[in-house]
Amino acid sequence: MSRSLVPNLEVRRGLRLERLRELPVRGEVLAAVGSKVQAGDVVARAYLPGDLHIVRVAEKLGIEPFEVARGLKVKVGDPITKGQLLCEHAGLFGLFKSRCVAESEGEVEFFMEKTGHIGVREKARPVELKAYVSGQVVKVEPEKSVTVQCYGAFIQGVFGVGGERLGEIKLLPVAPDQVLAPEHVPADAAGKILVGGCRPSLETLQSAAQAGVQGLVTGSIDDYALAGYLGYDLGIALTGDEDVPMTLIVTEGFGLIPIAARVLEVLGSFEGSQASLNGATQVRAGAIRPEVIVCHNDESIMDEDAGGAGSLGFRLGSRVRIVRVPYFGKLGEVVDLPDGVERIESGAMARVLRAKLDEGQVVTVPRANVELV
């Protein structure tokens, strides 16, 4: 898997957000417009129809459909249990009896006289929809959806796996470029969202998951560790439904890329606070990015600097990362923003900026090849 970066992802201390919570089928909405909800509150509930099983009684007993009708022991609408007698047929002179029993619990949905088949529907499965973020309900669509609005810190990642989870923010005491190892998982990690470092090994991911970590937010990852964690090579453009015990969010890309200082700064300022995270990612049309949300609902908390993603644009002193070779992944500070266009190495004319890299070198690069961090 090649290394990649996505420019201009949001990293904000304070932002008004709305999240639509929609049931997969019509059900019951439990929250009203104007009500205050917590992230873990159930705001809607529905029941998904159970699986339908066709019991081919005639074939099982080796009899004709009309004989099934004669020996039927249940009727449409009856609740049944696993092992319950559905049909009994007495053979020659009633001496030999054959029986067909239910293989699952459910309800008789239909009986087909022409074929001698019984339809058994399993019990409906309850689906409870949680608010996901703590805030206020601003819109309700009866029997269908709830929209929750909150104000909080908002961090987007490049890539993630795993669905929605809640946990307490905890920064790891490691450098941004530290490759995460199992010993970096703290003893009190259960229920936490760990933040920091980069390129965790497969053993680190497994260790964190076993410790009860709800989520890991890190700078980068490699395809070997990702495939090992999932149990297969990821080959689709939509994630979020993986059956994994811990949600993983990568903020920078693939390979060996340190987690951005801006991400550490924002999440570090809310260490100990509850956060919501979702690893769902869609890289095609209608892009969806993994996210971390800390709903502090304090509108006095705002982004004071212009150096983070989501600001109005490049300024002198802005922290940036170059996302194309030959300076791929390098961090630096904007020192010059020339007006107009300049000729670049390829011969094309483009708007450029000059940045002083952390190593001390001043380079000129097209603005399209740079992202704010």
Note the gap between the termini. Answer: 23 Å
Q: Give the helix level as a range of percent.
A: under 10%
Fold-level CATH name of the largest domain: Glucose Oxidase, domain 1
Largest sheet: 11 strands, mixed
| Number of helical elements | 5
What's the total number of strands? 27
Question: Which parts are unreliable, with pLDDT below 50 for 5 consecutive residues or more?
Answer: 1-6, 306-312
CATH superfamily grouping of the largest domain: Phosphohistidine domain
Name the shape in a single word. elongated
State the domain count: 3
CATH architecture of the largest domain: 3-Layer(bba) Sandwich
Structural class: mainly beta
Q: So what's the CATH class of the largest domain?
A: Alpha Beta
Rounded to the nearest angstrom, the radius of gyration is 29 Å
Mean pLDDT: 90
The fraction of residues in strands falls at 35-45%
Walk me through the structure.
This protein is mainly β. It has three domains: 11-18 and 150-301, Phosphohistidine domain (Glucose Oxidase, domain 1); 52-122, OB fold (Dihydrolipoamide Acetyltransferase, E2P) (Beta Barrel); 318-372, SH3 type barrels. The chain has helices at residues 57-61, 65-71, 202-210, 223-230, 261-268; strands at 11-22, 28-29, 36-37, 42-48, 52-56, 79-80, 85-90, 97-101, 106-112, 117-121, 125-130, 135-141, 145-156, 159-161, 165-171, 192-195, 215-221, 247-254, 274-278, 291-294, 319-322, 331-336, 342-343, 349-350, 352-357, 362-366, 370-372. Strands 1, 3, 12, 13, 14, 15, 16, 17, 18, 19 and 20 form an eleven-stranded mixed sheet that branches. The protein has a five-stranded antiparallel sheet with strand order 26-25-22-21-27, with no helix packed on it. Strands 5-10-9-6 form a four-stranded antiparallel sheet. α3 (202-210) runs parallel beside α4 (223-230). It starts with 10 loop residues before the first strand and ends with a strand.
